[in-house]
Structure formats: structure tokens, C-alpha cells
Amino acid sequence: MTHSQLPDELPTDLQNALENQDLRGAQYWLDDRPPHLIADELARMDDVDAVVAFRLLDKDKAVSVFEELEPVDQQAILMGLRDSAFRDVVDGMDPDDRVRMLREAPAKVVQRVLAGLSPRDRRVTAALLGYPEGSVGRYMTPQTVPLNQHLTVGEALERVRARGSEAETVYTLPVVDSGRRLTGVVELRELVLTSPEQEVADLVRTEAPRAYATDPAEDAARLMRETNVLDLPVVDSEDRLVGLLTIDDAVEVIEAADTEDVARQSGSAPWSGHYMAASVWQLARYRVVWLLLLLVAATFTVGVTQIFEGTLEQVTQLAMFIPLLIGTGGNAGAQAATTAVRALAVGEVRGSDLFAVIWRECRVGLLLGLLLAVLALGLGALFVGPRIASVVALALVIICAWAATVGGTMPLLAKRLRIDPAVVSAPMVTTLVDATGLVIYFLTARVVLGI
Asked: Which of 130, 175, 330, 412 has the fewest CB atoms in 10 Å of its CB?
């Protein structure tokens, strides 16, 4: 579009341009933005407007924008495209991005995508889909430039020039033997800076990290972060090279895992898609199940109060401190649970560390309880007298120690039982500690007050 063809008033918002049927303005907006910003804007729109905007993009930019979208948004746009545009987008995608889109796609979308691919691309896509759900094989790119360890540097560079355009990345080059078994990696930078006569075998890093195709993708991505590599070789059970996990895909894997953990820790079901494009009903649907479960669990608190109703009738002042105690205990448990889930996720804690974590969190909880008990004892003595204040202070120490221990160890127990530790969310721990904290409080009152 030339400057003479530009609209008099350039739109600052793509949605407004489409609502006003200003396609020239929308076209200019799209031409002037990078793919990641366009993808974010499309994800905010309803399906019809998103398809209209997407069809205004040129072919190359459309593929770049499409790969930036979440799978649920990709599927919505694909369903609104004609066959020719559909094939252009699908053919232009990298195999790993194509598989990422198809993981949760309806059967009719999968069939339409596979039918539109060339036989070679169909075989590659089907092979990646054949790996277990959540495995690194689903996320890796099979488009690599493997180098034989007996090549010279000059011959290796010629191979990179000849096949590099077909690969997703050439920065990390896997080195293999005659049986395609991985022996290590060499960086492109090393080849460029080395004499052409030297052999690749002299430069290969045999200790470079690797992952098996059936390994969890999250573990492989976090391994990349720990070892500071741009690309991670992926091999089969016989150590034969099958692909590379690239840094951009590793970041997406970690982001998705962290997003799921945050959702579960907050007592909500994980979901995909853009928040601003979700309806109120969708958001409520993802949250209501956990709230119902927590509501049922919270009835235990009511039951505990009824059991100790006689204790409350004798010393009504005890009721004043119930919110304070269960709130503090719940918060202490939630802190410990969140810390434990995070430590498990980044590999700082393993399932075998269960008893070490129990001992550590128990001491942390005791220390927190003692610090809070000093304050509670002083303030409580001013308002309700030293006897009730001592009950509250002692109960705080015990409840905090108990809450921290429960919160810190439940995620590890879940891990041992092959349950996602994030499922043992902070709200669940809080609800459990609320009920048990009341039992601790009333039993402490009976012992100290002799009732």
C-alpha cells in the first residue's frame, strides 16, 4: 500500500477498523505490526472477525502469525479458511508447530489438515503424533542437519549450506556415527571459526545433554534451562537421532506447565485460550468444580465447631480468635504448598526428600508460630486476659507447625502417587488446615483451661 493509498485517519485498533468495515485501515494496521502483536489481537476477537483479519495478511506473514497463536485459536481460524488458504497455512508450518496445533484439535480438523499435506509431510506429522502425549517427541523438530563425525569442517559447512534451508535451526548441529547414533553436538560458530581441514570429530562435545523422545517435555525443557543450551538433541531408545528440541519450543513447554500449575494452585481447572476472548460462562465453568469440592470440604470445619460447641459455651471468648487462627494456619499451609510445588517443578526437591522436607517445614512452622505467638500473647492479654491469650499463643505455634508440615509434604506425597503436585493446591491445603486447626485449638483450650 503506497502513502497515497493510505486512509485519511489510520486506525489505532484493529477491532474498531473491522467493526467500521474499514478493510483498508485494517490492512494498514496489520502491515505495520509484528506477528506476535497481531496474534495477540486476533486471540482477543471473536472467530468471525479473527478470520476476516487473518485473510488480509500476505501468505508469509500469515504463517508467522498463525504459529504465534494458541492451538485453540489456530483451530478456530483454520475452520474459517477456504481450502487454498487452508493448505497454504498448514504447508508453511514447521512439523512440531503443526503437531502442537493438532494435539487437542477435533477429529474433523485433524483429518482436514492431514488430507491437505504432501505424503512426506503427512508421514512426518503422523510420526510425531505417534509419540506419547506430553513427551518431548511431540514438541521436537525432526528437521535437522546431522553431521557425520568423520567429515572435515569444510565438508560439514558445505552440508549445512546444502540442507540448512530445510532445517528449523542450524545453530546446534548433532553429530552422528554411520548408524545415525548420536555422538555429540557441535556449534555452527565453532565450524565457522575453525580451519576447513580439521575433522568434526575434534570439535564434537560428547558430554552434551540429550533427551529420549518418550521423556516428559517439561523435564527436557527444564534440562535445557539448567544446561544453558539453545537446542537439545532427542534420540530414540537406541540412541539414534530423531530430532531437536529448540529453545522457542522449550520456552512454550515451560510456560504451559507453569500456567497449568498456577491454575491448579489457585483452585481452578487449567484451560487454553486468551483470557479476553473467553466468555463469562467459560471462566466460571473452569472454576466452579474446584469451588464445589472446596465447599464440601469446608463442611468439616462446621462439623468440628459443632463437636466442640460445649467448649465454646463455657468460654465464649474462644470464638473471637477462630478466624485469626484458621486464617493464619491456612496461609502458612498455602505458603508451604506453593514453595514445595515450585521446588518440585524446577527439580530442587525430589520425592526421596520427603522426610527431609517434613523436618524442615516443621521447624519453619514452629519458628513462624513462635514469632506470631509472642505478638498474640501480648495483645491477647490486653483484651481477654492471660489465660485465653496463652491458649491462642500455644495454639498458634502448634497450628503453624502442623500447617507448614502438611503444606510442604502433600505435594511430595502426590508426586509419589503419580498425581500432579499442583492438584494439591493451596486452597485444598487451606481447607484441610482450617478443619484440623480448629481441632488443635479446642483441644489446646481444654488442656490449658481444664474444661
From this structure: 130
